[in-house]
Design goal:
By secondary structure, the protein is an alpha/beta fold. The protein is about 65% helix and about 10% strand. Helix 2 runs antiparallel to helix 10. The longest helix has about 55 residues. The radius of gyration is 36 Å and the shape is elongated.
Length: about 575
């Protein structure tokens, strides 16, 4: 895990190493200050009866040395603070970048493994915790052990017998910290799981704001959010109570050091003068340094305990490998839009009780217009998602342009297939910026042509800013039909060999729907067009209509053929065409 996270340091290694060096310098300087101070105390004591000028000179000389060392300590500490902040912030930036880029390589199966709310938590909150820990590690985690080491060495050199106190304090403190961590870690593990649920609740509420208000469910959503927030508070409170034990343990150690040094030091000084006042003063200072360093280590330990779970969750994202990838010597050109399904079966996961698609055999020639009808859950969307290899078949094969889709470079294949999904999504930005997703090099003429084909040009021109009209997040400032037509235009700009419309004209009127299909026939005759629809009128003039039910193909044929051979198709057609007449009888 550490090795994997360390890869994200990259260009900030220099700042990290310099931070470590400055921390070493600060620790060395800090450890000598009590020694010099003790020498100054002894000098004042030994020369109390001598001329003032001599004593003043000694004090001035030693004081100047102390000031110099304090300035050096300040320079080292300040430089380390600046560099560690730069290194930690850069590390966090790289970590977020690596995670985001990794997520972009995920296939749908990978994304299904993580909820979107969980991914957001990992790339924000979890990275923040790890970033904070990293800054503490390259600063305090280096300085504190060095301070303890140097202080203990200097204490042994100056205080002798008094340094034995550290033999009892350090193991006691280490054992206490280990016990705290052991009980705190499971509590923090529970907290992050509930963070995901809380973020998921927020995400659902924001995305479904209109539905929430339409059904007056604000109070229910508030209660659901409050419940999740209270559960997080309870778990955090439990974890913080455990972690809070660090302070009493530190206070016990601090008081023990102070009492031992003062009492034992005074006793030695009075009895045999083996320890002088300067040594006692230095021992107290070194004792405080040791305990303060131990306290800082305990804070780091707590922070690492918290961030360890975050680091684990981050590594899960970084180490997740895409389920599918381009093969070696992948094909980089799709010959045409022909499609063949050869005995295809498909499951979204191996634990599914039954296949989503079963024994699919289908041949679609390049340039054909194909309609797909079927009820909810019939497998229509699952079928078309296999064409651009958004999912891989469980058995059988899918061929595009005469080649198995698994032989293609994935990017090449998907560039040749344009999908307009059921949930039309527009991004924040202008209409033009959204359309350029189809082809970033498209000219204004290309954009206008695609929009005319999708029957979008007229309503875009009706906006005051035309194609520079700003689209709000999620396309909330355009209607459902307008959004669908813009998404169709965006797909057309790809100039795909295969165009898939997954119920993408459901929000447009039948006249506009007819005009769009008429435009397809005239202007993109060589493109294979697959139209999933609920209205028979949307596919009635297709070269082939596929009727699906429960993941299997019930019938295929033209409109006239299916009216005579498929009862399900005939029933759907009569309900839609003559339903109103029957209701009026």
């Amino acid at each position: 895990m550490i090795k994997r996270l360390a890869k994200s340091i990259r260009e900030y290694k220099k700042a990290s190493v310099l931070t470590l060096l400055f921390m070493v310098g600060e620790a060395i300087v800090e450890s000598f200050i009590p020694f010099i101070t003790a020498d100054l105390v002894n000098t004042i004591r030994d020369n109390a009866g001598r001329a003032d000028t001599y004593l003043v000179g000694e004090v001035t000389k030693t004081g100047a040395l102390l000031v110099l060392m304090a300035v050096l300590s300040l320079i080292c500490g300040g430089s380390a603070a600046v560099l560690s902040s730069k290194a930690a912030s850069g590390f966090g930036k790289n970590l977020r970048k690596d995670m985001f880029h990794k997520i972009q390589t995920y296939n749908f199966q990978n994304i299904d493994k993580f909820s979107s709310a969980s991914l957001v938590t990992r790339i924000t909150t979890d990275v923040t915790f790890v970033q904070m820990s990293y800054m503490m590690i390259i600063r305090t985690a280096v300085r504190s052990p060095l301070m303890i080491l140097f202080s203990v060495i200097m204490s042994c050199a100056m205080g002798g017998k008094l340094a034995i106190s550290f033999v009892f304090v350090i193991p006691f403190l280490a054992g206490g910290l280990f016990a705290v961590s052991r009980f705190a870690m499971p509590a923090f593990h529970k907290v992050f799981k509930k963070y995901d649920k809380l973020n998921e609740s927020i995400e659902e509420n924001v995305r479904g704001a209109r539905v929430v208000k339409g059904f007056s469910r604000e109070e229910y959503e508030k209660e659901k959010f409050d419940k999740a927030a209270v559960e997080i508070r309870k778990d955090f409170t439990t974890a913080d109570r455990i972690v809070a034990l660090n302070n009493p343990i530190m206070n016990i150690c601090m008081n023990f050091i102070m009492i031992f040094v003062l009492s034992a030091g005074s006793l030695y000084a009075v009895r045999d003068a083996s320890i002088d006042v300067g040594q006692i003063s230095a021992m107290i200072t070194y004792g405080v340094q040791v305990l303060m360093s131990l306290m800082m280590l305990s804070m780091i330990y707590v922070m690492i305990t918290i961030s360890a779970e975050s680091a684990k969750r981050i590594c899960e994202v970084l180490e997740e490998e895409p389920v599918m990838s381009s093969p070696e010597n992948a094909i980089t050109e799709v010959a045409d839009g022909s499609i063949i399904f050869d005995n295809v079966s498909f499951k979204y996961n191996e634990s599914a009780h039954r296949p989503t698609l079963e024994n699919i055999n289908l041949r679609i020639d390049s340039g054909m217009t194909v309609g797909i009808l079927g009820g909810t859950g019939a497998g229509k969307t699952s079928l078309v998602q296999l064409i651009p290899r958004l999912y891989d078949v469980s058995s059988g094969s899918v061929t595009v342009g005469g080649k198995n889709v698994k032989e293609y470079d994935i990017e090449t294949l998907r560039q040749s297939v344009a999908m307009v999904l059921q949930k039309n999504l527009l991004f924040s930005g202008t209409i033009k910026e959204n359309l350029l997703w189809g082809d970033k090099n498209a000219t204004d003429e290309d954009i206008i042509e695609a929009c005319k084909l999708a029957c979008a040009h007229d309503f875009v021109q009706s906006f005051p800013d035309g194609y520079d009209t700003f689209i709000e997040q999620g396309g909330t400032n355009v209607s459902g039909g307008q959004k669908q037509r813009l998404c169709i235009a965006r797909a057309l700009l790809k100039k795909p060999k295969i165009l898939i419309l997954d119920d993408s004209t459901s929000a447009v009127d039948t006249k506009t729907d007819s005009l769009i299909r008429e435009g397809f026939r005239k202007f993109i005759p060589a493109t294979t067009k697959i139209i999933i629809a609920q209205r028979v009128a949307s596919v009635q003039d297709a070269d082939m209509i596929i009727v699906m039910d429960n993941g299997i193909i019930i019938a295929t044929g033209t409109h006239d053929e299916l009216l005579g051979s498929c009862d399900i198709y005939k029933e759907i057609y009569e309900q839609q065409v003559h339903g109103g007449e029957n209701d009026g009888e």
